[in-house]
Amino acid sequence: MNLTDLYDAILNGKLDRAVAVTNEAISEGVLPNEIITNYMIKAMEEIGNRFEAGKVFVPNLLMSARAMKGALDLLKPLLQGETDAYVGKIVIGTVKGDLHDIGKNLVASMFEGCGFEVVNLGVDVSSEKFVEAARTYNADIICMSALLTTTMNYMKVVVDDLKTAGLYGKVKVMVGGAPINEAFAHSIGADAYTSNANAAVIMAKKLIGAA
Predict the structure, then answer these.
(1) Which residues contact 106 (CB under 8 A, 6 or more apart)?
(2) What is a GO molecular function of this protein (predicted)?
(3) Three-class secondary structure of residue 125 per DSSP
(4) Least CB-packed of 22, 143, 149, 151 within 10 Å?
(5) Which residues pair with 90 in a beta bridge?
(6) DSSP, residue by residue, 181-206
(7) What percent of the chain stands above pLDDT 90?
(8) Of 45, 79, 113, which residue constitutes the final position of a domain?
(9) Statement to judge: residues 59 and 126 lie in one domain
């Protein structure tokens, strides 16, 4: 068995191959951390770099993220208790009133592929749910997504409620989505805005000092 096959499978979006190689590695006793850190994360970082450079596109990212997630699902049960196995913990969701989740799910997959533990709250997520999840899971970062101009202002409600809950500053806030920009993020008190999944991973690592 050659674990570079796993790297190649994820890079090329080959789900079945990624799962098969991961199963082999598990049966041969390779440590989950080694598989994730040395092969899976590196493959996702490379596909992210190629996306940034315009060499691959969103469908390629999605395929790689899918392959990575398939392999990661096999390893997750073996990671219980290994707190240092993750870079950080992220709570992510699309804000209340908004039902778009393709972009948000891609970002979530990239985070998982790059070593974060992700709590995906889904779509139409209320401020209460974001705050409660941040507290329950002891999150490092809350990531909010919106695709509609009518829902983007709800992000400020979440930020304000984090302040009320005494979590603002302890939990970093990242925002993204088609109508969002740097100026808007700044105006509502978010820590960062990113325009794509790869940039989100880079920024998240920077925010929690893991870059």
Answers:
(1) 58, 61, 62, 65, 197
(2) methionine synthase activity
(3) strand
(4) 149
(5) 118, 141
(6) -HHHHHHHT-SEE-SSHHHHHHHHHH
(7) 64
(8) 79
(9) no
Name the residue with tokens 């970002």. Answer: 107
Q: Yes or no: say if 17 and 39 are a contact pair by the CB < 8 Å rule.
A: no
28, two tokens:
């041969």
The count of other CB atoms within 10 Å of the CB of residue 191 is 20
Query: Model confidence over 42-78: pLDDT tens digits?
Result: 898 899 889 888 999 888 988 998 898 899 889 888 8
How far apart, in whole angstroms, are the C-alpha atoms of residue 13 and residue 165? 41
- Rounded to an integer, what distance in angstroms lies between the CA atom of residue 211 and that of residue 201? 9
* Percent of the chain scoring above 70 in pLDDT: 96
For residue 20, is pLDDT > 60? yes
Domain boundary among 48, 79, 110: 79
What letter represents residue 157's amino acid? V
What is the pLDDT of the chain when averaged over all its residues? 91
How many Cβ atoms are within 10 Å of 89's Cβ, its own excluded?
19
Cα–Cα distance between 20 and 44 in angstroms, integer?
18
- Tens-place pLDDT, residues 79-134: 765 555 678 999 999 999 999 988 898 889 888 878 888 999 999 999 999 999 99
Residues 63 and 17 in one domain: yes
Give dist(CA 50, CA 42) in Å, integer.
12
Tell me what pLDDT residue 85 has: 62
Q: At 79, is the secondary structure helix, strand, or coil?
A: helix
- Measured distance CA(139)–CA(108) in Å, rounded: 14
The two structure tokens encoding residue 7: 């790297």
> What is the count of structural domains for the chain?
2
